[in-house]
Amino acid sequence: MKKIWWIYFLLLAPTLTEFLESGSLPDKPRDMITDVVMTIFMGIFILIIYRGRRRLILVSETDELTGLKNRHAFQKELASAVAKAHRLHITLSLAIIDIDQFKFINDSYGHHKGDQILAKIGKLLKDSVRSQIDICYRVGGDEFAILLPAIDLSGTEGIDRRIEALRDRGSELLEPYRTGLSVGVASLGDGESPDDLFKRADSRMYREKKAN
After folding, report:
1. pLDDT digits over 46-72, tens only?
2. Which of 37, 48, 101, 201 would disulfide-bridge 96, Cβ 3.0–4.6 Å?
3. What are the φ and ψ backbone dihedral angles of 108, each rounded to 5 degrees?
4. Could you state, in order of their start, the residue ranges of all structural domains in the chain?
5. Out of 4-8, 109-113, 137-141, 193-197, least confident range
6. Mean pLDDT of all residues belonging to the chain
7. Which superfamily, per CATH, for 71-211?
């Protein structure tokens, strides 16, 4: 948004420069009014384009069913978060969440009910994480992810507690369907790539799923 105001200022710069150099308003007030009106018009036009572009980006990176960010956003932001964690030497954790026996739910209760459950799990994830810090995604099907940047000295303080609470609330929500959530969590290691981190968290999730 700051860039928009800089552009707006640059559009108005010629009129301001003329005023500063001459020490007075233009001889023809009509010229000044025309410059100001055109500057305002161009500023509004640029602002509309900027907001439209932001809206398109938001739509393209949002999962329509759950309102969470989608796989495209996840891949982009995971890479950015990993690069930042390596650069600043901070801890980054990733949780992968999957609904157990989701195919059974779709087959037994219908896809409409399955969609309702996905939407409820999406809301559950958003309600279970730190607002404005942790980021939730639906990465595909019944699989979700949470990026968990560190904001404390130990790096992973509170993650286990939040994940356990997420499991418990997920079990309550899915109890009528005789299923629950499987969760795998991994913290970024030295030199690990985004794909390495994802594979470790995903592998832990599948190990838990098999044990359930």
Report:
1. 566 556 555 554 546 889 899 999 999
2. 201
3. -90, -35
4. 2-60, 71-211
5. 4-8
6. 80
7. Reverse transcriptase/Diguanylate cyclase domain (3.30.70.270)
